[in-house]
């Protein structure tokens, strides 16, 4: 869908799209809000080994040097368009990591590495989706009939698409180290209450001035009354089990 209709229901996912387009959109969230143009063919070489087509048209001085004489390794410029605020993109990514850790995509948690993603199910169980990613790999799973028909009662994205994604990621990441999802500059992680999940607290990312208690009247010590907040928490999602700071109200029950 190139031109989204200006209808309120679009926010609920009523528009149609393709697995490639939706997976591409998730990839743009994963890389901090920079535009991605998907390609099916990256490069074509002739029988002599000469490149006759390359999808990536960025200039790379030094990439074709025939000999190495201790010159610096060529660096490709990042010319991708910034289509979303990096902080806003991270906040969505952080929510989607919660989907995997304690939400409808919990089947994917068995991969054992930081993954964010989201399930999707259309009316009458006609379509089931799961799109997810690590910092280096994005994958999308769609299950449905060519001629739209119900997949059956309770055949949701979390029940049938997420397990397919899980099995793929287990194989694809078998020898890959666990890598934390990137936290952009300016985002601070605070421990907030995870009501209803039995975890006590979770981490949520906030932009400056939007953190819990930021808009409340200060107490006698200059901090919001009844709130214990540290100025900066551990930005490594792999080390989120720390005990610093006290829990405050948050959105942990929304996933």
What does this structure look like?
The chain has 255 residues and is α+β, with helices and mostly antiparallel strands. The chain folds into two domains: 8-35 and 82-172, Beta-lactamase (3-Layer(aba) Sandwich); 186-255, no CATH class. Helices cover 18% and strands 15% of the residues. It has three helices and seven strands, in the order H-E-E-H-E-E-E-H-E-E. The chain has helices spanning 19-30, 86-102, 157-172; strands at residues 43-45, 51-54, 116-121, 127-133, 138-144, 188-193, 201-206. It has a three-stranded antiparallel beta sheet with strand order 3-4-5, sandwiched between helices. A hairpin with a 5-residue loop joins strand 3 and strand 4 (127-133). The longest helix has 17 residues, at 86-102. It is globular. 25% of the residues are buried.
């Amino acid at each position: 869908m190139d031109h989204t209709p200006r209808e309120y229901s679009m926010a609920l996912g009523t528009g149609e799209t393709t697995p490639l387009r939706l997976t591409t959109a998730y990839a743009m969230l994963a890389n901090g809000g920079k535009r991605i143009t998907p390609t099916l063919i990256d490069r074509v070489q002739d029988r002599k080994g000469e490149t006759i087509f390359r999808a990536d048209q960025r200039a790379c001085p030094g990439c074709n040097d025939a000999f190495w004489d201790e010159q610096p390794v060529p660096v490709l410029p990042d010319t991708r368009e910034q289509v979303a605020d990096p902080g806003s993109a991270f906040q969505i990514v952080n929510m989607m990591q919660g989907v995997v850790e304690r939400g409808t995509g919990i089947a994917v948690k068995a991969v054992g590495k930081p993954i964010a993603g989201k399930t999707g199910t259309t009316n009458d169980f006609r379509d089931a989706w799961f799109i997810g990613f690590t910092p280096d790999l994005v994958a999308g799973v769609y299950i449905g009939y060519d001629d739209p028909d119900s997949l059956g009662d309770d055949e949701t994205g979390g029940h049938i698409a997420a397990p397919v994604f899980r099995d793929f990621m287990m194989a694809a990441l078998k020898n890959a180290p666990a890598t934390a999802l990137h936290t952009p500059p300016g985002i601070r992680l605070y421990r907030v209450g995870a009501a209803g999940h039995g975890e006590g607290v979770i981490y949520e990312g906030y932009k400056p001035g939007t953190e819990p208690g930021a808009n409340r009247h200060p107490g006698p010590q200059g901090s919001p009354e009844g709130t214990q907040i540290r100025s900066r928490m551990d930005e490594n999602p792999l080390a989120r089990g720390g005990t610093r700071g006290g829990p405050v109200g948050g959105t942990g029950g929304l996933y």
